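Thread: aspartic acid complex, take 2
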Amino acid sequence: MGRYDKPIIIVHGGAGAWRTKGSEIIKEAARILKDSVIEGFSALQTGSAIEAVTIAVKILEDSGIFNAGIGSALNMLGEVEMDAGIMDGKTLRAAGVGAVKRVRNPIVLARKVLELTDHVLLVGDGAEIFAHSLNLPVREGVPPRIVQKYHELLRSIHSGKNPTKWRNLHRIMKMLNLYDTVGAIAIDSSGNVAASASTGGIWFKMPGRIGDSSIVGAGFYADNKAGAASASGIGEIIMLMMVCKRVIDFIYQGLSVVEATKRVVENITKVKGIDNVGVIALDIYGNASVAFNTEGMARAVMAKNLKEPRIAFFNEAIP
Ligand code: ASP
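Output below.
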């Protein structure tokens, strides 16, 4: 992905089959990824890495294009249940929220859990009550595009094309290749790193299922002594393999960020096959990397030495 000068922000819009979404969606996704890194980068001019990753992910959640916030996937009952998480590499404090239904911006709620509580994970009603107590904005309705997709998936499951056994859910998701969760990583001018992730989870998940985006070490991780990482793909695999913590541990052990991300994705491919994971990572020297075993991973970067954001979806050398 390259080496950049601090401050740096990198965002992702998920690993998956971006080509099948069509050129219009790709264009729109590129525009939003660009907005997200521009806003995140402007936060880095005056603020910290943790503020930048919050702002960048909030824009992606509000866009309705990605599987997070407004555009969240629906569970088997057709309900929204969102997860998000954030980590501050300076304090090594992290927080996640899981299965929240009514909060407009789960990433903002996760940040509040990090800053205002002693907890690491807050889920369901407890997380909603906390959000309500802080007067955080409430999400309104589900976009028609999402409702339509739910009914299409339901029809394809009922037609027998995709067998309904819930143990087959990962196979169905791999066929559909729908992972467009979002995340952001950043390093500020003082060398502090932060990581975040936010998702509606996998389509047709069981109610109450929580994925990697709220689990520290799985969907996100940041440590001022090594770097930051954020992942997308099948949450159960990412949690079992502790993808982001592993990337950071490999960097600790002396691997380059490129080798670290590559090795984690290759290990998963060996054990679980392809089409299930993607990860972006940044070390504290400004070296950035992306690795995925899917068709693509939507991503954008903005840094001090760039005139404008760089955006990529597939195997391009940049960003
Ligand atoms: N990782 C997310 C989850 O399993 C899905 C995605 O990446 O789109 O909850």
